[in-house]
Amino acid sequence: MGRRPLTFDNLTTINTHKEHVQTVEYLANNKRPAIVIAASGMCNGGRVMNYLKAKLGDPRHDVLFVGYQASGTIGRLIQK
């Protein structure tokens, strides 16, 4: 079997914009738990923006930052 620490049975990789849009809609329209790992560390662009718009207003969801959030970025505003 070997050692594969990043292999998860329920991991879904989003490769296209169409898949991204479908995933955001799916997550926005159901109450199932999910962990979304998205790039754009300071939340100033990219796919993370769609996930934030779909889920951030719901108190059941959290955002975890793994890097520095510079002053004036959306990531810094979310931290406050």
Overview of the structural elements:
By secondary structure, this protein is mainly α. It has one domain. Helices cover 32% and strands 0% of the residues. The chain contains 3 helices and no strands. Helix 1 packs parallel to helix 2. The protein is globular. The N and C termini lie far apart (45 Å). The mean pLDDT is 87.
Protein traits:
single chain; 80 residues; mainly alpha; 32% helix; globular
Q: What kind of sheet is the major sheet? A: none
- Distance from N terminus to C terminus (CA atoms, Å) equals 45 Å
Helix content: 25-40%
Order of helices and strands: HHH
Mean pLDDT: 87
Number of helices: 3
Envelope shape: globular
Q: Domains counted in the coordinates: how many?
A: 1
Q: What Rg is obtained from the alpha carbons, in whole angstroms?
A: 14 Å
Low-confidence segments, given as residue ranges, are: none
The helix-and-strand class reads mainly alpha
Q: Strand percentage, roughly?
A: under 5%
Tally the beta strands.
0
